[in-house]
Every structure is written in C-alpha cells, then in structure tokens.
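Minutes, project check-in
Item: structure for the 114-residue chain
Input as provided by the requester:
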Amino acid sequence: QVQLVESGGGLVQAGGSLRLSCAVSGFTFAISGMSWWRQVPGKERELVALMLTAGGVVYSDSVKGRFTISRDNAKNTLYLQMNSLKPEDPAVYYCARGYTDSTRGQGTQVTVSS
C-alpha cells in the first residue's frame, strides 16, 4: 500500500536549518508529483512546496527563497531543505503524493526557538 514516512523534524533556533525527508513506497515515485504541507493547531493545512512531475517547483510566498524541495528517485525520497527558519515556521510538516494533501504521511514536528 501507499506509505509516506517523514523524518528530520526537531528543535532549531531561529535562523537555523533543518532538512526533512520523506521516504515513500507503494507507488511509482519517480513519475509522481509530490508536495510538502504544514499545519499548526487551529489552522488549516497549508501548501509549502510542490514538485511537478516534469520537475518544476512551486513555493508558497512565505517560504520562497528559504526552502528548497528536492527528490532522489533512486532512494524514493523527497526532501525539504529549510534554511533561515523563522518563528512563524513551526508546524507539523507533511509530505504528500501529488498536489493535494489527501494522501500524506504522519508528519514531523518542527519547532523554532527565538
């Protein structure tokens, strides 16, 4: 079955960096569009970044220039490099198959200390 497992979250100081990973199985990752989402309590899940099937990328305005989405098809893994983390970035981060959050992993918590 389809599985997405995120890792790499944790506590980091403002201005620091984290790299999230998402290991996938159960579908053909190499030809799948993928996305990263985040959610804070009481708010709707929001799109952070997506990688199109053809390789193009799209970022939300709030992370543009700081976050980078990438993939390693040989490892069936999606990444999110997060630099210059801000106090408004803490959330549970999810990777998802495709361009919606309907098929996603369990999430990984990112906390930023100021």
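Outcome recorded: The chain has a mean pLDDT of 96.
No further action items on this chain.
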